[in-house]
Every structure is written in C-alpha cells, then in structure tokens.
Amino acid sequence: xxxxxxxxxxxxxxxxxxxxxxxxxxxxxxxxxxxxxxxxxxxxxxxxxxxxxxxxxxxxxxxxxxxxxxxxxxxxxxxxxxxxxxxxxxxxxxxxxxxxxxxxxxxxxxxxxxxxxxxxxxxxxxxxxxxxxxxxxxxxxxxxxxxxxxxxxxxxxxxxxxxxxxxxxxxxxxxxxxxxxxxxxxxxxxxxxxxxxxxxxxxxxxxxxxxxxxxxxxxxxxxxxxxxxxxxxxxxxxxxxxxxxxxxxxxxxxxxxxxxxxxxxxxxxxxxxxxxxxxxxxxxxx
Length: 286
What we know:
This protein is α+β, with helices and mostly antiparallel strands. The protein has helices at 6-18, 33-42, 66-73, 89-92, 115-121, 158-171, 173-182, 213-224, and strands at 25-27, 56-58, 78-80, 99-103, 126-133, 143-150, 236-239, 242-250, 260-264, 267-276.
C-alpha cells in the first residue's frame, strides 16, 4: 500500500485483510516542515503510532527509492491512494499483477492534486471515486471501476464527506483486485474530456457578493479543501471595513444571532466562521 495519509492506509489494510489478503507494507513519504504541519493539523500524519499494525512502514528518501523497496517485498499488487509523489514507471512495474490508484473524482474529470476543491468550485452535485491502473503520468491510466456519492450543501471539511467516499472506494476493492489478477486492462480514459484539478491562484481569492449565495458558499468550501497548498490566504471579503477570510458558511439560517448575514445576488448566505486578515481576534461565532 502506497499512501501518506494514515486513515487511508488504515482503511485499505483492514479491508484487504477482511477480503483474505496479506498486506505486507505501507509506503509513506517524507514531508517538508510545512507539509508536516498541515498534515498534523488535519490529523492524518502517517507515523509509527498511526500506521496499520502488523505491516512494515517504509519512508523512502525520494521517489527513486520506491522501486528497490517494493522489489524487496515481491508484491502481487500495489495499491496507491493519497500520495504526493509522481511514481516512476519502474516502481509501478514491480507488482506481479500491476498497480492501481484510487482518485476521488470521475476521471478523466479533475485529474490532479485537489479534486475535492474543484468539485466545489465547479458546482458539482457528486464526488467521484475512480480506481484506475497506474501509468507514468498522473491520473491518466485505464479505469477499472468508477462510482460517485452525493455532494451535500452541508459538506464543508473533508471529514464531512471522506467517510462516504472511503466506503464506496473500499467497497470496490474486491472488483479491482479481481480485474488486476485477471489481466483486465480497464477502459482507456477519453483525454478530450479531461480537466486538471490544480492548485488555486489569486484570481479565485476574492469573494464577490454579486455572485449567487451558492457560488460564494462553494468558493468558501473549495478553498477549505486546498489544504493551504496554494500559499494564498483566501477567500477574502471586506466586512465592516476589514479584509476578512471566510472559513465556514451556510446556505440556511443557523438560527443564531452570532452568524453574519451576507446578501448575495439571489439571496442571503450566513457566515458562520471568519478570520480578520489584520488586527483583532478571529470571529468564530458558532
């Protein structure tokens, strides 16, 4: 199992054992200090304490170390999910029956590092779940299984919806393994329908109340799901003369006087949590 996210590694290893297979090792990734701080804040750091029990935890120094480490275990299958490095072909070819990756999008839509954020930004009604064979590029391999789960108005943080995606991803794992062992090459992706879920830039950082309430709500949620990787503080709105980062919003009135009402193009949006950009204390009414 190749993953740098502890809950993902735990879930996949447990599911493999439930299906009667023998997981051998989890391969993580070394993190920069900034990456480690973000991961620790999100509670997803893969360490000796959080790694699945009964398997080796490997921390290669770089992506070129993956191939010899994997070869030492002679795996039948390599599974990947939630990994920051582009894995070399030599490493992908080690496993006897091949390598498969889970990508939380309806590939070829939203290839790339932040598909959740783009699902919100594009106003999607569902989150995707795709298992695909791995090749030398990112998220381009043939599709083995694909499904989706509803995206709800109340989905704000990853923990609001990650369990639903994990359920369908793990539920598809038996089919994925069967296809790999059978030599099923999967269905090629239609590159003409592909889109890239890359890191957000400054052109999406400012909140404009002239947009609809849902568009602003989606913008706030989308930035939450970039996990700070863009290096931009956003989304920002001027509230009472202060540049303020919006953290959490609601399309419905929460029924408390502490929430701030923001009138948008088609109606109100309620600001549940915000942080002033300069001076003052963060405003967290709920």
